[in-house]
From TrEMBL:
GO BP terms in the entry: methylation
Protein name, UniProt field: Class I SAM-dependent methyltransferase
Domain Methyltransferase type: 50-140
Keyword Transferase annotated: yes
Pfam families with a match to the protein in the record: Methyltransf_11
Record keywords, A-Z: Methyltransferase, Transferase
Species this chain originates from: Terrihabitans rhizophilus
Source domain of life: Bacteria
EC number(s) stated in the UniProt entry for this protein: 2.1.-.-
Top enzyme class: transferase
GO terms assigned for molecular function: methyltransferase activity
Amino acid sequence: MSLDVELQRAYYARTAPDYDSSHVFSDVEHDIAFHILAGWLPRIGVNSILDVGAGTGRAQRLAKSLGIAATITGIEPVSALRRIGHENGLGEDELTDGDATELSFAEDSFDLAMEFAVLHHIRDNAKAVQEMCRVARKGVFISDTNNFGHGSLPARLVKNSLRVLGLWRAFDLIRTRGRGFHQSDGDGIFYSYSVLDSVPLLRAKFPHIYLFSTEPVGSSMLRLSAPHIAVLALKERAGSLS
């Protein structure tokens, strides 16, 4: 296990007792994203969902409160978080151990795979997205950060310019002193990541892409102005409910 993964899992193990109050109930953008997804589920015809990086089972609790009938299986590598989920009533088969980059499920095992605020904690987030696509039949839903939409307007313009010039990764390595990851008291270990960078990977299997900003934006250019974005990628165009 690499140092960054060890540090991240240690962070969540240490902060597990406060996880729900510091992440689940304060991250409004992901609550909004889940409600967006809930509105789409009847159109897609979803009966089974894989929740990658389920934490203490936030999505499962939300689904029950909204009356969503689909079966949700959560995977979470941190045992301290799974323990809280089990204490809150989730069964061992509802919230289980798992690695987002090596999912232990066969191809097309679930109608939908989803994640909330997990990919920016995974160094090889592209591999995680590919795994989500592999195990999903109908689509993938991602709610995560857009690093190019964070900060002041000048900072965002500089970051997007570096991205266009192909210099962003080199710049990020310099500012992290070669580590390639960042660390904070509020979020543990995290990497420079944009949901929009995952869209080409999603499109390879799920060509119908729907994008949503889950926070207010200052312009229609999501990459420049939206700090958090949700994307729904579907194999088939969503049908009418009428």
